[in-house]
Amino acid sequence: MVYSRLYIRGAGYGIINPNILAIPISAVVPTLSSRQEIELIQRSQKGDRFAFDRLIQPHLWWMYSVAVARVHHRADAEDVVQNTLSCAWKGLSNLREPAKFPRWLYKIVLRQSHELLEKRRVQGRVTVFSELSESELNYVIEKLEGGSDPQTIQEQRLDFLKCLHQLPAKYQEVLYLRYLGECSWEEIGAIMDLPRKTVEMRIHRGRKLLRKLLAKQKEQR
């Protein structure tokens, strides 16, 4: 089982045990039916922090995946998730269409990512691209490439990240959601408000473009 250091550090939205919420990439987080999610949203809107804790559990990894695709830095991505949860808790009363909760969260992740990038730009902070943990990166490579031997993965990891981050954001996001966030095509469609065929097309084109970039990278060695 692969773990990330995704800790939600008590941003004030009241999650239970806020100092250490570590979620494994391949953890079995019980999914929620539409009815259960709507019920939890309604309870959360009334101030039930336990309900909100349960509500956001299935969404943490894809939120982190989108943030990584946007900010290219693991610690910054964790901050984006942290800030997103805080904003979601404070703003949940404004959610008028509970069925679109994932899409609503996605927009907050994008907004928080943009604000962090703007803050980084103003500060003149240069970010190193290779900021996924080794276990996370190897996990994504194995998923994308169908399983490579450890030595090959180690040789490819830096080239892989360089090329992955050269992809347009729309391809980065679906690949991270699919292979790091472990989302189904249907879940990606619900999060990004896209038809399934569009999701399939972006994953296909993203993988194809990534392979071309990797091949070009090898030629330049």
Task: Explain what the structure shows.
The chain is mainly α and 221 residues long. It has 10 helices and no strands. Helix 3 (60-71) runs parallel beside helix 5, helix 3 (60-71) runs antiparallel to helix 8 (169-179) and helix 4 (74-91) packs across helix 5.
Key features of this structure:
0% strand, disordered N terminus, single chain, 221 residues, mainly alpha
Short structural summary:
The protein has 221 residues and is an all-alpha fold. It has helices at residues 34-45, 49-56, 60-71, 74-91, 101-123, 134-145, 150-164, 169-179, 185-192, 196-219.
Instruction: Please mark out the parts with pLDDT under 50 across 5 or more consecutive residues, or reply none.
Output: 1-28
Continuous helix count: 10
Structural class: mainly alpha
Task: Output the helix-strand order.
Answer: HHHHHHHHHH
The pLDDT mean sits at: 77
**Largest sheet features:** none
How are the SSEs ordered, and which strands pair?
Elements: H1 34-45, H2 49-56, H3 60-71, H4 74-91, H5 101-123, H6 134-145, H7 150-164, H8 169-179, H9 185-192, H10 196-219
Helix pairs in contact: 1-2, 3-4, 3-5, 3-8, 4-5, 6-7, 7-10, 8-10, 9-10
